[in-house]
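Researcher: Let's walk through a ligand-bound prediction step by step. First, I give you the protein sequence. Second, the SMILES string for flavin-adenine dinucleotide. Third, you return the three-dimensional complex as structure tokens. Ready?
Model: Ready.
Researcher: Here are steps one and two:
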Amino acid sequence: MAAYDIVTVGGGVAGSVLGKAMAERGYRVLIVERETEFKDRVRGEFVFPWGVAEAKHLGVYDALIQAGGHHPKYWTDYAGPDPLPSRDFAEDTPQRLRGLCIYHPRMQDALIEAAEAAGAEVRRGVRVRAIEPGRQPRVLLDGHGGPAAVTARLAVGADGRSSLARKWGSFDAREDPPGNLFAGVLVENAPASAENSICMLNPSQLRIVLYLPQSDHSGRAYLGSRGDTAVRLSGGGFLSFLRECAASGLAPGLLDGARQAGPLATFDGAESSVGHPYKNGIALVGDAAATSDPTWGQGLSLTLRDIRALRDALLADDDWDAAGHAYAAAHDYYYDKVRTAVSWFTQLFMQPGQEADALRARALPQMASDPFFLPDTLIAGPDLAPPTPEYRAKLFGERH
Ligand SMILES: Cc1cc2nc3c(=O)[nH]c(=O)nc-3n(C[C@H](O)[C@H](O)[C@H](O)COP(=O)(O)OP(=O)(O)OC[C@H]3O[C@@H](n4cnc5c(N)ncnc54)[C@H](O)[C@@H]3O)c2cc1C
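Model: Step three, the predicted complex:
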């Protein structure tokens, strides 16, 4: 039976970046990816500055730029009809980096190619059927040549938001109650500027509309909604999508004449996460470890942070069981900070009810006069901009 140091279930962003990081240090890596071709599944296409910094740490930033990654100059929030002052993250984040827009399937292609070029073995069109946990986990494959099995020092569940590796490893997942719905579609021929990422927050309707431009007049439009006005659109609902974006207050003209350039799909935003994502020879990374609410765009940055944390733990300790536990403890620490910030944003902008209305009445005027009233966790990340008790006290009007 073939033996590897690492076998990843999945060759999306998580599996490929880990594969590259470990193969280039001489470890024997197998990446198993069931898709023979990456398609638009309506996923993340904006990486906030803290995730861009992670991509640089991991040595994949240049590959993302070569794959068409584009840095719009500005980020503009609307918290009502008028824009707040635009931000240039290259000027006002500790990383001094702008966010990155990139078409997701092209990003996946670039990263899996980078992993292969670094020496990882990649098997496409092969599905992992199960993992048998243990000191030397066995990974069972269903491929072109029929069933097969390989062993690894570490099996890595990088199999996304519907992860089966969670089940194979007997991990307990924490599922939040249903919350936001989040729809997205690729558009082309939009008159919106390629230099401005737009985030239109509309707390009076519990809606959010985002437009994240690529350099070529295409871009990803997202609509988040909640409560009585929640919108679940898919398939041929593009015109309804545009109408709903306009009704949610999207700046007039931004998407006039835009054409649909990919599938339209809606996802439940409720977070689903595993506490301590390592057990018995199996580590979970990316969405398999924690699927954060896509409304706040943290998944790609978290995924890259996971890979750095796991890579560093594995390189620091030859006992990979101990390294797996060290990774899981690190994961819980930074994920908890992101989750806290996400929950504050959800309460402020998307939560129905009197308590949330009172919070908005107190906090939104302060936010309009102080651009750093809320912590910058979602932009500058959990390490450099954590959601501290001081921020909590300010936001919720509590004594600190
Ligand atoms: C609508 C939406 C919008 C989002 N917007 C943003 C955003 O703007 N910014 C942001 O940072 N994040 C965003 N995200 C989140 C982001 O897309 C994810 O966090 C990220 O793609 C996770 O990558 P991953 O590699 O963990 O999982 P995936 O990308 O899902 O990759 C998993 C891979 O595993 C493969 N696989 C699964 N099971 C098996 C198996 N048994 N055998 C073999 N292969 C298997 C799959 O084919 C897939 O290629 C968004 C998510 C959604 C749904």
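Researcher: And what stands out?
Model: The CA atoms of residues 375 and 387 lie 6 Å apart. Residues 1-67+102-176+272-400 form a domain with the FAD/NAD(P)-binding domain fold (CATH 3.50.50.60).
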